[in-house]
Structure formats: C-alpha cells, structure tokens
C-alpha cells in the first residue's frame, strides 16, 4: 500500500524490507552511541555441532556498553535434556564477561524457556500478556557481577 503525503513524499506499508531494517538499525545505533557515549557494539554467537556437522544448538546476541542481550537460544529437540542449553548459555556469559559486560537481558515466551533461565540465575523483570494461546512475553535479567543492581 502506498499513500502520497505531499509533493514527492511517499509513505509505503509492506512486508519485510531488509534494506530499511539495515538503515534503521544503523541510524538508531548512531543515535544511541551519541546519546550514551558508548559505541562498543559486537555480535556474539555460540554454535554446537555434532560429529556430522549437524547443528545441535546455538545462541545469537549482541554486546554494547556493558550489556549483553540474548536474542536467540535454541537446542534441537533430540538433544534437549543433555545439558547443551546450559553449556551454550554459560559459554556466552563467559564471553560477555570477557568483553566487559556485567549484565544480561533477554525475552522468552512463557511456552519457551523462562524457567530454564531462572534456573540459571535470571530474574523476571516484566511480563507482556497477549501472546497467542494465552501466553506472555517474559523479560529476564541477570547480573554477571554481584555489584550490578537488578
């Protein structure tokens, strides 16, 4: 859908736009860096593969200004219960500490893994209802060093 908004100006609504996403990310990152005086961004990932190169699981996130955010953590169904989630999480936390991070944040739906994170020292800081099936989106936090207040 496209709607003209004045001479030469166009507002467009559509599906995923990778070019727009990249530009928005770049612009917000620059704004955030200016506002906070911090620009030490870094992607962080952990990957576990089996002997045949198949993906057992992994984690994706980022670090910035002493904060580590976990965006994705997944372990394949056939490998769950073998401790891979905890190993991946600990490896990521150790790397975040090495990078100077002192806290971690993440979100997990109630049907996913909030209890897993709580077993690993995370505390719930918020809950947004309205996820399909009567579920909620749970935000969690963990101090990687005892001096950081939750």
From TrEMBL:
Cited Gene3D superfamilies: 3.40.630.30
UniProt xrefs under Pfam families: Acetyltransf_1
InterPro entries the UniProt entry points to: Acyl_CoA_acyltransferase, Bact_Acetyltransf, GNAT_dom
Limits of the N-acetyltransferase domain: 1-145
Alphabetical keyword list: Acyltransferase, Transferase
Name of the protein: GNAT family N-acetyltransferase
Species annotation: Streptomyces boetiae
Taxonomic classification: Bacteria, Bacillati, Actinomycetota, Actinomycetes, Kitasatosporales
